[in-house]
Amino acid sequence: MFNSIKLKSALLSVVLLVLLLGVWEGIYQAPQDSKPLTEYELLMGGATQEARVPPPSEIIKLGYEELSDPFYDAGPNDKGIGIQLGYSIYRVTVGFLLAALIAIPVGFLVGMSPLMYGALNPFIQVMRPISPLAWMPLALFIIKDSEISAIFVIFICSIWPMLLNTAFGVANVRKDWVNVARTHELSHIKTALLVILPAAAPTILTGMRISIGIAWLVIVAAEMLVGGTGIGYYVWNEWNNLNLASVIFSIFMIGVVGMFLDMTLAYAARWVEYQE
Amino acid sequence: MNTHFLQVQGLKKSYPGPGKSPETVIFEDANFNIEKGEFICVIGHSGCGKSTILNILAGLDEASDGVVIMNEKEVSGPSLDRGVVFQNYSLLPWRTALQNVTFAVQARWPEWSKERILEHSHRYLDLVGLKGAHDRKPSQLSGGMRQRVSIARAFATQPQLLLMDEPFGALDALTRGVIQEELIKIWTESKQTVFMITHDVDEAILLSDRILLMSNGPKARIAESVKVSIPRPRKRTDIIHHDNYYTIRNHLVDFLVNRSKLVSEDESAKQPYPKEITFPE
Ligand SMILES: Nc1ncnc2c1ncn2[C@@H]1O[C@H](COP(=O)(O)OP(=O)(O)OP(=O)(O)O)[C@@H](O)[C@H]1O
Ligand SMILES: [Mg+2]
């Protein structure tokens, strides 16, 4: 009874999906039969037909093949989609964790001290709107390693939401709770750990969630730039091979992995949430 | 020489006015003493500065002038010797009722073992009638239950002075009555010194030894100190039959309705406040 809405939504989702794929498949089939080849197409020897967006059936077939052996490795330009996604997830994780390691303590400092807030705020405000990819040339020049440069770009793009959310959460901890800590003569460290951290944790987690979302958006673009490995590189490479089914399947997988990354943090957020 | 447990001398609080206008004086010339084991209630109109005085006593706020001396030592900053029950309970919502109390007990006696801390905390939660609700989060407790946790937390640390800011303000009359009686019970056992703010005249008469009356702000004063000459133990149902009950009650109400405005306006009457008022038993 209580999940009848849920059930109905799920059913509707499936209907919409089938409808969408059906129309797509239909559009793909339709012109082939009806229209005669134009002069241009005749000249091209029917090549344009190969460049058409492939139908869902083809993509699903490819997806099945890819997913049944996701981790094969046959040289630098022929790796399974699992390996490519793995590289991207690895870079995002390392960059994100490094950013958290710095953003959360600094955010704490900024949130707790109006002096530090005033001092650091101009830097933050200027650095934050810079597209993370704009750092890439500089990173490549200084670091001279495309792998670490990609991680650096992830680091730089994930740091701001976490830093700002931490600072905001810490600065807005209810005064009453801080007063509870004060009347119990807690040291600064204990106040930070026992009162401010748990009070600000939901806001901090929200920042982390935003960060990982942005990091996953950015890694695709960054890997397209630096090449070598990763899902971004893979998409670009398949596009160069005109393998559109593979491109579409990768796009779908990027969405799925992004969703899982977000769900992981949403799950973590449930642990620190509290009701006032 | 200093025989009083707590002395408040010439206390004043003012805030800078907007721009170059003169400062706003919330209250000034507040003088009063509290003896060990006394239960003091403060009554006054909203905004006269009661919470401000309490926060200064707690060490959470700073006075603009004057001193607070407890145990012959000047109060500067918060201390575990002065427990506070805040108006809005101020429980930490991510901790259970029990964890809110152990938090305080552990801060008070860091050298205690885990078992001892738990045993002590359980005892105080039981004392305020919260058996069976120890492991619930504040959001799962009613307003009255939250206030009990807050009271248990304050009493559990056995402070020398207990400060309570309208602890029952948000409760319905029935719950209020029950918790008042629990408070009397704990207070009788612990012999704690209590300084409590209330809006409720009957509550003040039931609970306190002495009632401090504050005149209206700005420039409020502690105008009178009324002794509640009704013998203990007191019961809510019985004290209304005592001869002094209505005498005191009328005096308090008359002050609040008629005289509280006048005191602050009457500059010429700069007598050493507060006026001591006692009705013979
Ligand atoms: N930061 C501030 N700047 C200026 N005035 C302030 C400031 N904080 C408080 N006040 C004033 O101080 C006065 C006393 O406030 P306080 O909270 O002590 O009142 P109260 O007697 O506890 O009132 P209530 O019974 O409503 O709780 C109020 O009139 C308030 O406007
Ligand atoms: Mg108040």
From TrEMBL, chain A:
Keyword vocabulary terms for this entry: Cell inner membrane, Cell membrane, Ion transport, Membrane, Transmembrane, Transmembrane helix, Transport
InterPro entries: MetI-like (IPR000515), MetI-like_sf (IPR035906), NtrB (IPR005889)
Membrane-topology annotation of the record: Multi-pass membrane protein
Coiled-coil segments on the chain, per record: none
Main localization of the protein described in the UniProt heading: membrane
Highest taxon of the lineage: Bacteria
Residue ranges of the TM segments: 89-111, 123-143, 149-170, 191-208, 214-235, 247-269
Classification via Pfam families: BPD_transp_1
Subcellular compartments: Cell inner membrane; Cell membrane
Residues annotated as signal peptide: none
Domain ABC transmembrane type-1, residue spans: 85-265
NCBIfam families (UniProt xref): ntrB (TIGR01183)
Family membership noted in the UniProt record: Belongs to the binding-protein-dependent transport system permease family.
Protein name in the entry: Nitrate ABC transporter permease
Organism: Thiomicrorhabdus heinhorstiae
From TrEMBL, chain B:
Compartments it resides in: Cell membrane
Domain of life, source organism: Bacteria
Membrane topology summary: Peripheral membrane protein
Keyword hit for Mitochondrion: no
Span of the signal peptide: none
Pfam families: ABC_tran
Alphabetized GO MF terms: ATP binding
Keywords, comma-separated and alphabetical: ATP-binding, Cell membrane, Membrane, Nucleotide-binding, Transport
Residues annotated as domain ABC transporter: 6-241
Primary location group: membrane
Family: Belongs to the ABC transporter superfamily.
Classification via PANTHER family: NITRATE ABC TRANSPORTER ATP-BINDING PROTEIN, TAURINE IMPORT ATP-BINDING PROTEIN-RELATED
Listed NCBIfam families: ntrCD
Protein name listed in UniProt: ABC transporter ATP-binding protein
Species, as recorded: Thiomicrorhabdus heinhorstiae
Top-level taxonomy: Bacteria, Pseudomonadati, Pseudomonadota, Gammaproteobacteria, Thiotrichales
